[in-house]
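Holo model, nicotinamide-adenine-dinucleotide. Inputs:
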Amino acid sequence: MNDKVIGVGVIGCGEIAQLMHLPYLDELPSLRIAALCDISAGVLEKLGAQYGVDALYADYRALLADPSVDAVVICTYDHGEIVQAALAAGKHVLVEKPLAFTPEEARPLVEQAEASGLVAMVGYMKLYDPGYEIGLSKIAAIGKPRAIRVHDFAGRFDRYGALYTQHRASDIPADVMATARAAAGARIDASLGASHAGYRDLYLMLLMLGSHDLAVLRGAFGRDGKVLYAQPVGGDQLLAVLDYPGGVPCTLEIGVAKYEWWDEYLEVHGDKDEVRVTFQNPYWRHASAIVSLKEEADGGESSRTLPGIPDTSFRREWKHFADCVLNGARPRTPLSGGLADLDLAVRIIRAMPPKPA
Ligand SMILES: NC(=O)c1ccc[n+]([C@@H]2O[C@H](COP(=O)([O-])OP(=O)(O)OC[C@H]3O[C@@H](n4cnc5c(N)ncnc54)[C@H](O)[C@@H]3O)[C@@H](O)[C@H]2O)c1
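Output:
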């Protein structure tokens, strides 16, 4: 590490790397872009020129051998094998969600990370959202909730094009990603079991979109939710009911709608008050979650909205990562949380009526 500046290698330079990680790695003083890796030579060349980076790699193993790389951020499709190799190479790791595709793949990574002494975090950026942090303090003030509700119907992902410049790969052979998806699919089917492998797409939806919500829920209430009930709602939506200690029910509704707005919130109902944390479109910068409160005041009802703080969760995630590497802070989103969320995702799917592949 050079003068307390962490050299970061970016593995997988697609959408999320370009929209959120590269700009903050470039901007924050304790981090720098040391190297880039992608299977698209065209994207590598453009980003290398844009960020002034000469160390460009088509193979992540070559990037991991580069001594100027202290840490990596993993933004490919399939993460597990790269996390394993990065930790083995002595690199600190920030891995985008999901940590892996199955709990079976994730468990050894958690053990490896814990034994390594390296910083290893899952990119659950919503846990660094300043609005969510305010919401957590309000939720804690409620005491034991009467009910919890998590609702995520997402919204249109294709509207941010006007906000950011992005280089899309057009030089990757079509079969490369198809092969990667098929290989991950086979591992998922094995993990869900023959009786539930027919839910592969729903499980993937839960990992890609819903893992944020499972993490947000875990951040507020711990990992002790038992699955009481779960059912599919068509091919791209699910309903589940969890039970938290003390008999607190939690309803989970996750699906992919095409709303023009972003539709995602955590709602907690107490005896005398309610808290709702409404998340903004994850691709918007400077747009933290908004906290709405309903409570008793002067013998009547009072509603107020806390507008949040104009910061970006991805930026705060990187500042926390740097604090962990440079100052020994404890990661707030360790790999163990990513494993807990994969475990819960499998338990939700297995609570559904059987559906063989
Ligand atoms: N935190 C969030 O809100 C958020 C948002 C979007 C995506 N993600 C996660 O980030 C990851 C990437 O998503 P994306 O939307 O950027 O996808 P993407 O397809 O736009 O980008 C993936 C990139 O990885 C490259 N790649 C694939 N395999 C590779 C390999 N073996 N070695 C090197 N490069 C490889 C591809 O060429 C592509 O450029 C996914 O795991 C996704 O779940 C997180």
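The mean pLDDT is 96. The longest helix spans residues 200-221.
Archived with the compound record.
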